[in-house]
Amino acid sequence: MVNSSHEAMHRIFQEYPGLFAGVSKVLGLPFVQPTSMAVLPSDLTEIQPVERRVDTLLRFDSDDEPLLVAVEAQRGKDPDKPASWAYYLSYLYTKYKVPPLLLVVCQDRATAEWAARPVDIGPRQWPALTLHPLVAGPHNMPVITDPAEAREDLALATLSVITHAKEPAVDGILKALSAALRGVPEAFAGPIIEFTAQGLGSSRRAAEIWRNLVAVDLSFYKSYLAEEVRAEVRAQIQDEVRAQIQDEVRAQVQEEARAESLVRKGAEDILLVLETRGLDVSGAVRERVTACDDPELLRRWLTRAVTVPVAEQIFE
Hints:
By secondary structure, the protein is α/β, with parallel strands linked by helices. It is about 55% helix and about 10% strand. The protein has helices at about 5-15, 20-25, 80-95, 110-115, 145-150, 155-165, 170-180, 185-200, 205-215, 225-275, 285-290, 295-305, and strands at about 35-40, 55-60, 65-75, 100-105, 120, 130, 135.
């Protein structure tokens, strides 16, 4: 399962190798349509104890010539990367004897512009090699906000989401992709839903939008994200019901406490009036007054306590 936006940026090419054709078309590169595709091992480790791994490595065969595509997900500027990328391409060309191409996928314009710069390797008078990556990022990937367009190439629409995850335009792309997935078989829609969720990475607002769209528009799918959203919705409803019950119980307790306080104060006022007037308050009168829990009856007794000649007459 994809577990980070870094993996989503390159793993989507493993899941849908044909996505490279869509990306190259968008970028205006005249690659011949391949007749076959294969995902190759990404381990570029030498015999020496130095491990080097490209994120995703693809091989495309066509009527023209075979092509290797090394896909690298880059989330920030790294001054050591150009040397590593140059090594990858040299090693791949040595191992497979097939022209290699480096595709770098980015989620922000600054990183994309940095990655796209040609890097000369060698003396400035005569560079031996020039690294020239192909970059896909928010600066050149299409903003697909039309569900019909998204439906034509769901993988490209998903990459559009991933590369624009930090851009305001991602909201419209997510809505278009959600609408485009309606009616798509679950076997194909499920991975798209998960790649989209993971590709959003740390963009919390966009991730929340996508989770809501999955919960409402794509609720019939059984992907882990859909199940997670449903579980959260159920938990939220339970919490809201529990909170409502607690509020009602709390209000009832407070109301009962207020009523009890009024009753107690009413009884105290009656006894205070009788005693202030100098009347003899027997134990029976005191017990009957303090035992009464009817506020209306206590008010009547209080009114009488002001004028009666003896305390017992407040009950008449």
